[in-house]
Amino acid sequence: SAPVSIDAPDLGDVLRQRPKAEDACPTGIAVIDKLWEGGVYPGELALAAGDTNVGKSMLLCHLAASAYYHDKRVLYFTYELTKAQVVERILTALFECPKQELNPKAIVDQLLAFRMRKDITRGSLVIDDGTGIRTMAELYDRLSGADIDLALLDSADDLQPQHSYTKSYEVYKELYRDLRIDICQSLQLPVWTSVQLNREAVERAKISLKHIGDSYAKAQRAHLVLAMSQTPQEREQLIAPVVKLWVLKDTEHGSKGKWSPHACLFGRGNRGWPGFRH
Hints:
Elements: H1 11-16, H2 30-35, E1 45-50, H3 56-69, E2 73-78, H4 83-95, H5 107-117, E3 124-128, H6 136-144, E4 150-154, H7 168-187, E5 191-196, H8 199-202, H9 215-221, E6 224-229, H10 232-235, E7 242-250, E8 259-264, E9 276-277
Parallel strand pairs: 1-5, 1-6, 2-3, 2-4, 4-5
Antiparallel strand pairs: 6-7, 7-8, 8-9
Helix pairs in contact: 3-4, 6-7, 7-9
């Protein structure tokens, strides 16, 4: 976009471009939405960080369902799960039911009834397996022609950098710099992507950016970092597994260091669905 002069006669128009509350894509996690003034806003890059099997993909499905529930247009790129798996998880999140209760014969009518009941008039949710999208330039081409309010990537780590590097953190620095500047800010689009934390970070009683290894290079470029942390004892809680959600970075609202424990509604196998109860 063109440079802005503070002495320009149209300076008021610049201020009018500031996001409004209705532009936020809610996370559906009340404590986080309160901290972030409604959720993630256009132009912001947010990271969902955690170790393998802690529930990062479940969190992204929950975020997609929450945005759809709030009448947002969502595009979900899955490089990890199949499209069918993501659809199944998002539907169970919307209907708050285990996957065995999803009836293929009735699902279309059920979703139409759900949209009418929740007054979803413009919301949409498309799942893309990323075929033909392996570089940031290809991702830009796909998103620049999409009429959406939110993009989710699971995960941006699967994209290829423009240049060759000998160290992984150099790869991440390029990818996440381009993701922030060329995608989020250029297209004025909020983006969530999942990133990997190391085991030391996940099992700590308290975590910070210095504990996340190569993911630090990704966090440097993000506006918001929401981490998932879980000890073995929390994973084995009888009522439901517990996961701690940490705000590791917040450049907009000053909520860094805030955290809260949540019961994982997806933590008991086939009977669960993507969700978090404070």
